[in-house]
Each structure stands twice: as structure tokens, then as C-alpha cells.
Amino acid sequence: MAESRDVPPTDRLDERAEHLEQLRESVEAKTLGESQTDETGEINTVDNHPADISDFTYQRELDSTIGQILADEEQQVRKALDAKAEGRYGICEDCGQPIGEARLAARPEATRCIECQRRRETQNPADRDADRPGLERTA
Ligand SMILES: [Zn+2]
């Protein structure tokens, strides 16, 4: 009997999708809040110390980086949800082999087995997770 086991990865995938949505909303709300402050002129950069300005810029860049990471994550979660809807959740999209249980437990949104993911990252580190079929440019 497997009754006492952890929540299945597909349930955790749904949870993750919800969680990501909440995170993105809070990041967006924060970013919008900042630009509203800009418009009202409450933050007057002329009066601020340079250190404050760079902190502010840094925070902005950080927010946009987080936004980018979240967007990537969301895309990946959506892919896994699609796979689930089509009944091929837990199957590697590259080699068609089952993705390991441990990997799915750690990353319920994984759509590739660890070997294929690694190979992809090694072959194409700058372009990982991109769905374009090989940028073959003749230099
Ligand atoms: Zn694979």
C-alpha cells in the first residue's frame, strides 16, 4: 500500500503553478508601485545621495531579474501541465524515457530526464531551455 506516501508530483505541480502566480503578482505589484511613486514625483533623484540611487537601480534590476526567472519557471510549469493534460507527464520530452522519481519530487515541473537536461546545458549553455531547434549559423 502506498497510501502514506507524499503528495504525487502532479499535485505538487499544480501547487507550484499557483505559487508562481502569486509570486509574480507580488513582484508586479511592487514594480507597479515603484513606477507610481516615480509619477507622483515623491522620489526626487536630484536630492538623493548617489548611493541611494544606485540602491534603487539595483533593486529595480533585481526585480526584473526575478521577474525573468519567474517567467521562465512559469513557462516550464505550463509545459509540464500540458504534458500532464496529454498524459505524458513524467516522460522525458527528448528521449521518451521516464523521468526519475527523485527528479520529479525535486522539480515537479521537469519535462526532461536529468541526462537530457544536462546534455542540453552542456551543449548549449547560453541557450538552455530554448525551444528553437539549433541555431546553425555559418559564421
Ligand atoms: Zn531524456
Describe the structure.
This protein is mainly α and 139 residues long. The protein has one domain: Up-down Bundle (Four Helix Bundle (Hemerythrin (Met), subunit A)). Helix content is 60%, strand content 0%. The protein has four helices and no strands. The chain binds zinc ion.
Care to give the gist of this entry?
With 139 residues, the protein is mainly α. The chain is built from four helices and no strands.
Can you give keywords for this protein?
single chain; 139 residues; mainly alpha; Four Helix Bundle (Hemerythrin (Met), subunit A); 4 helices; 60% helix; elongated; binds zinc ion
Helix-strand blueprint:
Elements lengths: L8 H32 L9 H36 L15 H6 L7 H10 L16
The structure holds zinc ion.
Bound molecules: zinc ion
% residues in beta strands:
under 5%
Sheet with most strands: none
Give me the CATH architecture, please: Up-down Bundle
Poorly predicted ranges: 131-136
Dominant shape:
elongated
CATH class descriptor name: Mainly Alpha
Order of helices and strands: HHHH
Compute the number of strand runs: 0
Distance between the termini: 59 Å
